[in-house]
Write the structure tokens for this entry.
Amino acid sequence: MRNALNQSSLLPFSVTTLAEKNSAHVADGLNVLAAIGFASKARVLDECRPVFNVGLPLLTGDEYTELWSSLTPVTYGKHASITWSENGTVLFGHLLLEEADFPDLRVASETAYRHVFELLQVSGYSCLLRMWNYFPAITMQQGELNRYQTFCLGRQDALDVHGNFAYAPPAATAIGTQQAGLQLYFIAAKQAGMQLENPRQTSAFLYPRQYGPVSPAFSRATVKDWGQGKHVYISGTTSIVGHETLHIGDPSAQLEETLRNLEALLGHGDATLGLPIRVVRSLTQLKVYVHDQASLPVIQSHLENYLAGSCTAVLYLQGDVCRAELMVEVEGIYA
Ligand code: 3EB
């Protein structure tokens, strides 16, 4: 344990969850890559640095700030819609677009990803490690497709023309909000991370056509060896086994299945790549996206039981999963 702590303090950055509201002073330290808060509406809190609120309210009444701090000094800049920070080893970027400024969600999504890929190219941080995607009405049907499928089309449009997933698709989260704004944030590095897939789940990029005209471009997790040690970035994970949704209508059973998926992922990752952690309870932070506030008590008590005695920070957020039958999604980070 002591070893692990010493090691992680030498990594290029760390993520900590502070029990306070995101505000300018939180990010006043010298080496802040990003400060992320959670509120009903997505909002930029600093024009010059990635200090922002994700548009998802916390369900437990607490205030939290997710602080990404760097071991070394940070510089800041802008590219198109993106506000970025970097410390010589990792790049953090954030963008928030008004969908109303675009003809449709596909074009908004394509634009957002085009800006990301352009930045990766000009900055030299060419390898996307982890991506978060948030936008409203994710399961709403519009014409032939639902909005998640349309979002995937735009992401793929940008990838086809500007993208470079030559190494591996990033780990990712895609969650529905209740208010306007297409919001992305991400980290990238100069050397690729290792892609981790889940033996219990069909890789998302191989999903059959029934889920949409293009498969979602993400991996189940990225393991990044920074030289001094490894980080683990786990994608939004749900009650999907193979490619099928299980336990429809039962949020508690969905959470259990999700935890089995996370355990299988970490077990497989340790066996194939070697991980700094082997169990869910060793993760730095979990985010739990809950579709229906009414299912929070059962989900929270189940998870608190499962994690009893661990130091993992757990954030419960109101968010919609991209398949309407899914009531809960869980992502994790070891950083
Ligand atoms: C799934 O497992 C659930 O499109 O970027 C999870 C994480 C999901 C990321 C994305 C979608 C994405 O298929 C959905």
